Structure formats: structure tokens, C-alpha cells
Amino acid sequence: MGRFKQLFKRNIYFTITLIVLLLSITFAGMTLAVFSFGKAVDQTSIGFIYLGNYEENEYAVIIENQIDLWKDYVDYRIQYQDYTLELDLDFLDLDINQTLDQITKDTDNQAYFTVSTSNYTMIEDEIKTYFTTGITTSFDMDAFMDRLLSDVSELKNRKVYELIEFLDDQVGLSVVQETQIDQIDALDVNQIIQEVQTIKIDAESRFSLLEKIGELNLTNEQLSIIASGIQVVSLNTNFNGFIFEKNYTLPSWASSGQNVRILRVNQFDFSFSNNSDMSYDVTIEKTNDTTLTFKLIGYPYITSYVTTSVFQVEIPFQTIYLTNDTIDELTPNVIITETDTEYIYQLLVQPGVLGQVSFYIRTETRPGQAGITTRLFD
Predict the structure, then answer these.
(1) Are the beta carbons of 127 and 136 closer than 8 angstroms?
(2) Which of 94, 88, 86, 90 lies closest to 61, judged by CA?
(3) Domain end: 274, 301, 328, which one?
(4) Which pTM was predicted?
């Protein structure tokens, strides 16, 4: 009986202890809940500017101070090809009244900026001057400013704009370079035009003629004509790293700087690198029965590229004499040489032409800077 009483007392104590513990937890939870409801955290902000710890009458000073600091380290740029212009956001004015009027509690809000007419013009002039008026004639300043004001309203720290997004599409169809190749066999002209009229030069890649059009129904001669046309329109561009073979006996259509030999079986290709982030097209048009026009189509360059040939050494021609007993004093255009013992009759079949070894250099000139010259190919 005593053991039963002892066990009963222990159970009573345990039950009471458990009830007290549960009541304590419940009381603590209710207390925290009441406290939380009474002290909810204010999540009001404008971008990175947190306003939850401030009274509304303090907002203006906090916002203005933080945005002044923000303007000191933000990085906003506009770029085209390898040219980049940093944008000065001090040209934009914070509209503190509209910013305050549009604030909604417990949300992330926007900052509102305006730009004066004079500052608008200054920004536009700076962009057009830096990227040259030849390219920015169609620049849509209104669209650019709308985008800029939208981004700064979110207080973004970094933004890079592509100039071409605000240019007329026709700018990308500019004729960057153009050349004609004549004295082509009429059959070759027709076959080339039938097979290919546009060849794409991809951005940031290595161009290979055989990879692009090597499977078309074109002879090595016809491929050589196309390669030589592309060679000419590529001279005054940023294309580099040219690899090709030349014709050492020039066809009728070839000349120095317009001379590429394609031979599929030997993998004689024409290749080069386009390091630009812009692609280009080469178009081929029939000018007449024996002439093709090649055009390089794409966005114009700001940098000036000028390629010239440099004479290295002269190669004298060899005079070859052939015996022909039918030549005499009555032969038209005969050259008669009299010696002590005989008359020598000679007829010039083909005039000799002095050969030469030369190489090509390219001078790259950025606006306001001295040109840089590099060797392009032999």
C-alpha cells in the first residue's frame, strides 16, 4: 500500500510539472506573438536604400544623401565595337518630390529622375561625337534616355548599353567595302551567281571559305575568284590572321592583293579571323558578263583601316630564245641585227615583265590617336 502511494505521488508531481511547462510555453508564445504584431518590421526601401528604420519626415535627407554617394561609384556605359563611353549620371537630377509621393510602405520603390533640356543635349552630343556622326546619324536619343531613366530609377549599380540597339536597322546594312573583279570567263560568272550570292562572316570566329561554300557546285577556279574578291574587301577592315596560297602565274582576273588560289584536294583554303563582336556579309553581284562586284555589308567602323603593299625586292625576267627558221626580213615586226658575218632576224613574242616580292601592311588609326602599323600578309 505504501508503495502504491509513493508511485501515485510521483505521477502527480510529473503531471503538475508537465502542465506548468506547457502553460509557460503557451504564455511565452502568446507574449512573443503580441510583441511581434505590435512591432512589425518595416520593409520600405528604394533600391538599396533601406528606409524602414526612419520616420517619413527623414526620408528626403536619407534618399538624397544615399543617391549622391551612389552616383560616385556606379558604372554606366554605352559601347560600340571596341569603343566604350562612360556615362556621367550627374547629368540626371533626382526628383525628390515625385519619389516621396510614390513611396508605398513595406515595398521596394523607385527613385524618379529628370533630365533638363540642356543636359539632354549635352549627353546626346557626347555620344554622337565619341561614336562619330557618320554612325550615330540615326541614333534614337529618346529611346536611349527612356531606357537610362528606367534603369537608374531602380538604382542599378552597373549597366552596359549596346549602341546598335538605338540605331536604325539600315546602319547594319552599310556597304563597308566594295570592289569589282573583271576579265572573268562568262561561264564562271554565271556559275558563281547561280551557286552563291551571300557569304556570312560570323562574329568572333575564324572564317574558312571551304567550310562555308566548299560543298557547292563550284570549280577551284571559281572558288579562287570568290576568295580573291573577299580578300580585297577584307583589306581595310579589322579582319586578320590571313592564311592562303597565291597563284604564281596570274589568271586574267587576278592581280597583286587580289590573288588567292583554292585547291580542294590539297586543302588550299582562304581563312582569317573576325575578332569583332559583329558579323558581316559578303554579297556577290553580276555587273556584266565578265565582271563581278563584291560588297562587305555590316556596321561601319570607327577605326580607320588602311592596307598598302610594300615593295621588297625586284625579280628580273629571263629572256628565252627559240629557234624559228621561218623568220626573215619580210616577217612583220621583225628585229634585224647586223653583224660582221650575218644578219640575225628576231621576233619578240612576249615582252618580259619584271617581277617583285612585296608584302602588305595595315595601319590602324583610332580617332585622335597615332596610327599603329602591322604586317598583314606577304
Answers:
(1) yes
(2) 94
(3) 301
(4) 0.79
